[in-house]
Structures are given as structure tokens and as C-alpha cells.
């Protein structure tokens, strides 16, 4: 029986664990809280992933180490180096294959569809943090690949859409979002993210490069409108948050102060090219309506 290790316990980690377990593979999930889905083949372990010795012990004998973990959003520049160093140390010591879940911040502002071979040109602290994690892993000589997702949506997703749009649409209240309402944006479903992670882990030609999770590309107004229609909710009332709104929210929680770096430039679509993922790994995008039904 194949044995896989996943560091993380969020929606993408949990869905990945279930996909592997349903294929008859034994899975060990590692997180600070020991959380994760219940399944006979899923073992949940509470451990600190920055402890390289403990992580090595837990990953010994595994085929693949997946990581979906990340520090608190506002602490990436300070805390990502320790986490990624421990993960890479455990991979080197055990010889497991290494599959990382990343995002699109590392590219920085891009004109046109974003391809996975684009340079990692971000200059902001979160974008550079993400870029360094990949650059160090890719230069280390281990078998590694990175699966890069857009903004998450779907059951269990933790994102701007799930936190600031979903509940408000379903409740019929005003939706305030820190992005332009009518500019195309690529969204990655949790299920498609997990399927891409699993497919990349099983394909030898996937290693040594990055892959994009398939996406649905709509404006946030279009996506909210589809959600409302499917749920039988009123047509959404939506407004874009102002700089002042974000500044005031930043006084309540550090998360909001971090939004400025990752907001796209005015009028610029944020579109992902995931054609290679479909062509080579065989993973396509789930229809947006199906994903939205999960959220209802």
C-alpha cells in the first residue's frame, strides 16, 4: 500500500487526503492541531512542521510529501523561511517526492494570461516569500513540483470570495469586496486543486517545474450573480471597497493591511493559462455552477 504524507489540514489538504485514501493509499496528515477528515486510511497527527527532526520521522517511508501549509498571512516574510526550510530538510533526509501547493503572488503584475513558465518577478514581501520557497526547493536537487492555484472557491474554501461574498449573497446583504467588480479573475476550485496535486504527484514529468490549477474565469460580479441565482437569493448588491475602507479595516486586524500588495492594477484582468495541466496531467476545470452548488 502506498503511503503519503500531507502537511496542512485546510480544505485543499483534506480533499487531497480523501482522494488518495479513496484510491486505497494510506495518508498521514500533519498539522499543529491534528485536524483533518475522518477516514480509515487517514491518520491525523499533531506536530509542528517547523521541527525538521519530527517532520523527518513522520515522513520516513512515504512516497510523497505534500505541503499545503502556510503561516499566518501577515507573517509570511518572517515565518515562511523556517517552515520551508524544515520541509526541505525532511524531503532531503527521506528522499520522498515533494509536491508543494503555491499561489500566483510570485509572478507579480502580469499582462495577459499567466503561464507557469513566466518569471517570478514579484517585488512585494508576500510575492517574494512565495517565490523564494519555490526557488530554493527547485535549486535543491530534490524531486519537486509546485501546483499554483488562483483564488479559492468551493466547499471549505478560505478566500476573499468565501469570506466576503458567499455569506452576504446568500443573506441578501450588501457585498463589499477589495477588487474591481467587472474585471475577469481566475478562480480555482478546491476539488480541482486537490486533483491537480494528486495528478502532479503521480506523473514523473511533472517534477522540476510548476503547474497551474484549472480555473473558472469570471468577474466577481458574475460569480456572485451565479451563486445568487443557484441559491434562489436576491440579485447581489455589490460595491468595491475603497482605500479608506481597507485602511480602517487594517486597524482591526493585520490581514487587511496586507491586501494592497496582492490587488491587481485597475482594469487589468487576472487570468490563468492552465492548458498544460489539462493536456499533460489530464485535469480540467469543474463547471463553476457545480462548484457554487457545493458552497450553497
Automatic annotation (TrEMBL):
This is Nucleoside-diphosphate-sugar epimerase. Residues 9-203 form the NAD-dependent epimerase/dehydratase domain. It comes from Nonomuraea jiangxiensis. InterPro entries: Epimerase_deHydtase, NAD(P)-bd_dom_sf. It holds the Pfam family Epimerase.
